[in-house]
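Can't attach files on this board, so I'm pasting raw text. These are the components:
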Amino acid sequence: MSEPTQAGAQREEIVLNMGPHHPSTHGVLRFVVHTDGEIMRKAVPEVGYLHRGLEKLAETQTYAGYMPFTDRVNYLEAMFAEQAYAMAVEALLATEVPPRAEFLRTIACELNRIANHHVTLGCITMDLGAYTPFVYLLREREGINDLIEALCGNRITHNYLRIGGVSYDVDDKWLGQLESYLNHFEPIIDELVALIVGNEILIKRMEDVAVISREDAVAWGLTGPNLRASGQDWDVRRDIPYGAYPQFEFDVPVGPLGRGQAGDCNQRFLVRVEEMRQSCRILRQCLAKLPEGDIKAKVPKMIKAPKGESYASVEGARGEMGCYLVSDGGKNPYRLKWRTGSFSAMSIIEHTSPGLMIADLVALVATLDVIAPECDR
Amino acid sequence: MEFIYNYLSSLELGPWATNILFVIALLVVSAAVFLVALTIAGFLVVVERRVAGRVQSRIGPNRVGPFGVLQWLADGIKLFMKEDLVPAQADGPLFRLAPYLVMVGVFAAFASVPFGMLLIASDLNVGILYILAITSVATVGILMSGWASNNKWSLLGGIRSTAQIVSYEVPAALSVLSVVLIAGTLQMSGTASSPGIISLQGGWPWDWYAFYNPFSLTAFAIYFTSAVAEGNRTPFDLPEAESELVAGFNTEYSGMRFAGFFLAEFANVYLMSAIATTLFFGGWQIPGVSLAAQAASFWLRLVGLGIFVGKAAVLCFVVVWFRWTFPRLRVDQLMSLCYRYLVPIAFVCLAGNAVYLLVIPAGSELDNLIHWVTAGAGGLLVLVLLWRVRFHIKRSGDRINLDLLARGEKGSFDPTVQARPYGKFRRQHNKESA
Amino acid sequence: MKPVEIHAYLQQKLDKQIEWNEGEKSTGDPWAVIEADGWVDACLVTRDDDQLAFDFLRSLTGTDRPDDGKIEVVAHLWSYSRRHAFVLKTTVDRDAPVLASLTSIWPAAVWYEREIYDLLGIDFSGHPDLRRIMMPNDWVGHPLRKDYTEQADYRGIPTSRPGYATAVPEKVDE
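---
Top answer:
Structure tokens for the assembled complex are below.
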């Protein structure tokens, strides 16, 4: 802690607290930062401020009744948690989900992915000082919120999926509005790229900052855009296909793209921008190929999953969202565990932080896209 | 003030009466300058928030007064009525003193800032030197507030800010020195009889010192960048970086003390714009009107006032524009920009100007040619900017709303109507809701 | 490789019997159960062996089994290069739960094991930083255990409101 220098003066490291209440941290997170002036020795994340006991709550809820709780695992990408849970239960019940429901789930998830990236990219630029792109992106996000509100009644915590399918069907008017939104939004991605991506100050803040190598990313369990930015070509949608994804054609952006090296903040930023484009592409294919049919398979009114366990994972916007379900044959799950991308991303911060400046910590946390509810559950 | 002193002396009232009346006049003029500066700062706050709103496709304050122009009064009253909090462990006297030092540093500089011809509190013969010196007092105040808050984040903010301001004084002073070299005087405003920096320029753009030669154009760019950095404005606002330090050195301040810092910052924005106008853009000079003509006519002087404030307002707008466009630089990037780029370039400009003044006789044909060419280059840059703006407006199509005054609830303006729904559903939606 | 094949391969590699389970109706995932003292060696083999190459610790969690007097620790493994998954379990005694840490094999285990320690009470030997993660540092008890009852107050703040449902609600009936 305190080291004597040659001149006889004492050198101490400062312990700073980027506390739970902070304009920058994404949700209620806390970092205890040990710094030597401007350069950090390490930054220790403290989580648990948003721990709501979702896993313990599952043990007292019915399978069907737990669906609204799954939204709260990560309220910004709620559809993914719903889908992971639904898939885990359906694997145990061996239910087959009708094709139209799979497509509707995909539409909901991809819209959610775009909405999530709006917030993420906005927060990255806002944390780095450019307040305006955040407001623009939130303006675009309103369009998606309106679409989803028309679909299922809620803007954020949707409760849209059900075990065996989805809850509400779509009509041609809604599909037309979705298409208009895509027509409106795709040129805006280019506009935002022109505004943000080429900005020299932003690039200088993010280029070669907080590099996470591919081996580190795999060993520490990073998933999703963070993993792809570090150079590992992996996407659950393409590599362990689920739902309707085998029928779609889409690219998976892998770092390095643009300037900077694989695994730095700029790559994590650019990968998400590209993902928004690919999501639009998937949505258009959904619109073109949407089949007719039921939106929900027949499941018993009171679901009792057979004894056993299953693990279902989807490619969430912040990483792999996995649901591990243990059933003992009763009405309630015996054990439910959420595997989230932010939990692993938070764990790597202490490992990556030595040698960064405090301003870089902000960039690292923002580009890793950690969010408290996913981390704490 | 010299004018007042001369007038009082001419009344021949005897030394005691003259001096007492002079002191009273001094206090009155100081109060007037302070209030004017305060009003300008307040108005600038509203302008910044409205501009921020329009840039971010929203409206901005529009409730208090027409187009929200009295918002600063409402904010001021609110801040005035807040509880005066001094943290228990904070260094009381220093904590209380710091906002005053910052305010003094900024508002005292207004004593030598011209508003129009003959409309200046005190046209010191060391005008610009006085301004550069007195604004440094604010640095002490910032460091004091960072230390006295007993808050490690404030301390970091205070230290960063001090380092930043002290460093950026160097290129700022060097570029000011270029202008002083050309003008030959430190006096800001001046008249026909005692020349000052403004009176030595002319009304037309090619008479301005910004376009004197390419070196002085660069000096303007360097001065402007350094002034923005000294004022802790984005892209150099790391000391107040909201996402990192909450509010940096003024985290612990609330109520009127915070208002002191806040108003000082905005007054500084106007101050730097006014100085830039004085030094580089010809101040209150009217194109085609001679000094004698302007000195004789009250109405021409009024036009001069309008021209000066207009030029300063354009520069203020640019500063505000920067804030809502650029991300912020990191501390080490900021310092490296200053010492590795701006300082050497500023030296080159200074040397270049000196050589220019030695080699090319003032007023000669070559001199005038260089003025015109540089002014033309400057005008070309402005035209290129305007063309790009037009290009982007056209490319955005109907997604852009150019109602700059953004009339709120009474008119039909609704920034969200164009945002959603989209395409043919927008026209349907508009018809249904109209 | 399919999970059954992986199980056979692992049995042969480790040269011992490994319990195999498939759930009641063979829906969902099958799993293998390893003895607690062979836990770290088995996991090391799964990571380092060429045929298995499990480089990604997807999830590490625990399940409380009070009826058996045990706590299960479950590791979900995935291999990016081989593209196969496996579920590996071990059990520890509920009254003296100690297990060797996997942090030297997959650094991802650092936080997962902290969470298991916090919520289920298993002490991981060899863990570099074993402290509570979700609950406050001075919390008493391990919430995910089936017999957990919340303490009546935390630093003077009551943890339940009189007249409202109890902190741990009973299971939902029809």
